[in-house]
TrEMBL record, chain A:
GO terms for biological process: iron-sulfur cluster assembly. Residues 179-409 form the SUF system FeS cluster assembly SufBD core domain. Coiled coil: none annotated. It comes from Jeotgalibacillus campisalis. InterPro entries: Fe-S_cluster_assembly_SufBD, SUF_FeS_clus_asmbl_SufBD_core, SUF_FeS_clus_asmbl_SufBD_sf, SUF_FeS_clus_asmbl_SufD, SufBD_N. This is Fe-S cluster assembly protein SufD. Belongs to the iron-sulfur cluster assembly SufBD family. It comes from the Bacteria.
Automatic annotation (TrEMBL), chain B:
NCBIfam families: sufC. Pfam families: ABC_tran. Belongs to the ABC transporter superfamily. Ycf16 family. InterPro entries: AAA+_ATPase, ABC_transporter-like_ATP-bd, ABC_transporter-like_CS, FeS-cluster_ATPase_SufC, P-loop_NTPase. Keywords: ATP-binding, Nucleotide-binding. One of its GO terms (molecular function) is ATP binding. Residues 5-247 form the ABC transporter domain. It comes from the Bacteria. This is ABC transporter ATP-binding protein SufC. Gene3D superfamilies: P-loop containing nucleotide triphosphate hydrolases.
Length: 435, 260
């Protein structure tokens, strides 16, 4: 059944928005095409979560204007704490839909690295953006939310690393959601050309002012031959925000994509993370932590699909559920015919902290090739009373003992986040959420 | 400070089955007591019940630490009151480093604002690890995770030495140790020995007692202390086994659940 939902924006609004930005024709027409499709396409069908009644489409404003930050010194403390202000030379900060601060070192500019907000990139680097924007990793017409995303994209970043350029310092982005009426259709596009390497880390932050809102995020990572991309993220959107987030990567021959994802939203969330191991010897690794609380409902589907020979895919997810939160963890390792000597491994662990919490771990292996290796492990359990007894027998209070066990449970993933400030942020968010 | 731990007529059940059937013991600081006995006679149950293991129900009796009934305390309160249990099977805890755990344990005994300084902590930790011939990297490993049996036992003794409780109950601290590890563990226990430290060692081998001379030896069978004596009792058990005690007391099956 497809229920017809009236979208809060029409063709005129989208056209006007595109014109106001001075967007190239390809983007304007892509938006309008997508908008037409969004009306009819069905919602995605995340396995085991019913989302027909979720609000992904109704929001007050498509775009809002927010004040930019003049310099690093002017940043609010909540953002400053994420950034190594002394050292961070490559930083994009977006406030709601407004590009609010951008720095890129002269050195990287000179090497041809591009890092800018997505709408500026569409104008200034149309050939690159047009080539990769929703053409390969995520397609416009997959379902209503990808189409809506393409039609309404109003923020995000573009990062291009030319051939043979290896960037040692992480590139950082911070997306601030602090306007009660702002909807976020954020698109991040990372293209790492042959033999390049880069680390990109993003944080989504929200303030309590955001009551009911819609966020629709698509990230695309293109790792070309022998490229290496590390993608870190901490999502921390507000309780009233319904989020659709889809992060996908395409790995070429000999390339490698690592994801470290801290899924800390307080609202209902559908998250998809997919790595397509197209090239021979490609490598994909997803590490994800989740803390669910309140009444929030979430679905985390992680997929690594192998086409390349000798390709390796690893998924590790740890989730903590408290209160009446409920989460589905779907892990899919798929090996296509011809991907000989591929290896697909996955592990999902869910720790339940209350009677009412729900957690479901579903490991799925789909294998169309004989000459491969694969494995999975999944568990849903409670804090082990023997562990608590052990810790408490050393004088540690029950509360502190539980805290240690929970942090310890999440640590293997938290420790993988590539920026100290973001790692600290994630630890602090976890601390707050599990209290 | 001298302290006493008195166990009075302790009865303990698990899942409705009575395991301890009236244990009486008196321990003083400055002394090392040993409980021996074959498998399945209730030794670990006694140790766990004193510390407050959640699975055991105390149906009767008292455990008094300096006159205070510890059975009314939470597990962490018992530890803070001065009890320590080296467990037969220590838990593994992912993501919590040995060092962080030890610092939390030490600080749990201190007032807020009076926490041990990092420098002092590290100095003490290094000193004790060296004394126990442990690889210093083990401080940064996750608590007991992937430790060998011997490493776990050493780690229990390390905790004992760092926490310095009034009473240490050591449950099978010697099992699974090779001779070198046994010597190291004994060295740790002997180091703790002193006026302010009382110890209850649970073992079913006498070989540990080649390195630690006990002040008193008790034998447990059928969930009770059935015989007590000095170090000579351990030697006789080593030479003759347990059968003579069973004969003396008319016991056929020494394990819990069998009535005399
Ligand atoms: N967790 C438990 N659940 C059920 N029975 C137990 C448990 N722990 C101990 N027991 C029973 O209690 C009895 C004594 O065990 P234990 O105290 O471990 O003996 P010991 O340490 O002397 O070998 C045994 O019969 C054992 O089966
Ligand atoms: Mg035992």
């Amino acid at each position: 059944m497809t229920t017809q939902i009236k979208l809060p924006v029409d063709q005129q609004t989208v056209e006007a928005f595109s014109q106001r930005n001075g967007e190239p024709n390809w983007l304007s027409s892509l938006r309008l095409d997508a908008l037409a499709k969004a009306v009819d396409l069905p919602l995605p069908k995340p396995d085991k979560t019913k989302i027909a009644k979720w609000n992904f489409t109704q929001f007050a404003n498509h775009t809002v204007d927010s004040t930019a930050y003049g310099s690093l010194e002017e940043l609010p403390e909540s953002i400053k704490s994420l950034i190594d202000v002394e050292k961070q030379g490559n930083l994009y900060i977006q406030r709601n839909n407004t590009p609010a601060l951008l720095t890129l070192s002269e050195d990287l500019k000179a090497q041809g690295v591009i890092f800018t907000d997505i709408l500026t990139a569409a104008k200034e680097h149309p050939e690159l953006v047009e080539k990769y924007f929703m053409t390969d990793a995520v397609k416009v017409d997959e379902h209503k939310l990808t189409a809506l995303h393409a039609a309404l994209v109003n923020g995000g970043a573009f990062l291009y690393v030319p051939k043979n350029v290896e960037i040692a310092e992480p590139i950082q982005a911070v997306y601030v959601h602090d306007h009660p009426g702002a909807a976020l259709f954020n698109h991040v596009l990372v293209v790492a050309d042959d033999n390049s390497s880069v680390t990109y880390v993003e944080s989504y932050l929200a303030t309590d002012d955001v009551k009911e809102s819609v966020v629709n995020i698509v990230s695309e990572v293109i790792a070309k031959q022998n490229a290496r991309v590390v993608y870190g993220a901490v999502d921390n959107l507000s309780a009233g925000t319904t989020t659709y987030v889809n992060r996908r990567g395409i790995a070429g021959r000999d390339s490698r994509i690592d994801w470290a994802l801290g899924m800390m939203n307080d609202g209902d969330t559908i998250s998809e993370n997919t790595t397509k191991l197209i090239g021979d010897n490609s490598f994909g690794d997803t590490k994800m932590v989740v803390v669910g609380r309140g009444n929030q409902k979430q679905n985390f589907t992680t997929n690594i699909t192998h086409w390349g020979k000798n390709s390796e895919g690893y998924i590790l997810k740890h989730g903590v559920m408290k209160d009446a939160a409920s989460s589905i963890f779907n892990g899919i390792g798929k090996i296509e015919h011809g991907a000989t000597k591929a290896n697909a491994e996955q592990e999902s662990r869910v720790l339940m902290l209350s009677e009412k919490a729900r957690g479901d771990a579903n490991p799925i292996l789909l294998i169309d090739e004989d000459d491969v290796t694969a494995g999975h492990a999944a568990s849903v359990g409670r804090v082990d009373p023997m562990q608590l007894f052990y810790l408490m027998s050393r004088g540690i209070s029950q509360h502190e003992a539980e805290r240690l066990v929970i942090h310890g449970f999440l640590a293997p993933v938290v420790s993988k986040l590539p920026i100290e400030g973001v790692r600290r942020q994630l630890s602090e968010v976890i601390e707050r959420k599990v209290q | 400070m001298a302290s006493t731990l008195i166990i009075k007529d302790l009865h303990v059940e698990i899942e409705g089955k009575e395991i301890l059937k009236g244990v009486n013991l008196e321990l003083d600081s400055g002394k090392i007591h040993v409980i021996m006995g074959p498998n399945g006679t209730g030794k670990s149950t006694l140790a766990s019940a004193i510390m407050g293991h959640p699975k055991f129900d105390i149906t009767k009796g008292e455990v008094l630490l300096n006159g205070e009934n510890v059975l009314e305390m939470e597990v962490d309160e018992r530890a803070q009151a001065g009890l320590f249990l080296a467990m037969q099977y220590p838990s593994e805890i992912t993501g919590v480093t040995n060092a962080d755990f030890l610092r939390s344990a030490i600080n749990s005994r201190r007032e807020e604002g009076q926490e041990i300084s990092l420098m002092k902590f590290i100095k003490e930790l290094d000193k004790n690890m060296e004394f126990l011939e442990m690889d210093l990297n083990m401080a940064q490993r996750y608590l007991n995770e992937g430790f060998s049996g011997g490493e776990k036992k050493r780690n229990e003794i390390l905790q004992l030495m760092m926490i310095k409780p009034d009473f240490g109950i050591l449950d099978e601290i010697d099992s699974g140790l090779d001779i070198d590890a046994l010597k190291v563990v004994s060295k740790g226990i002997n180091q703790m020995r002193g006026e302010d430290f009382g110890c209850l060692i649970i073992t079913h081998y006498q070989r540990l007692l080649n390195y630690i001379t006990p002040d008193a030896v008790h034998v447990m069978m059928q969930g009770r202390v059935v015989k007590s004596g000095g170090p000579e009792l351990a030697h006789r058990l080593e030479a003759e086994g347990y059968d003579w005690i069973k004969q003396e007391l008319g016991i056929e099956d020494e394990t819990v659940g069998q009535e005399a």
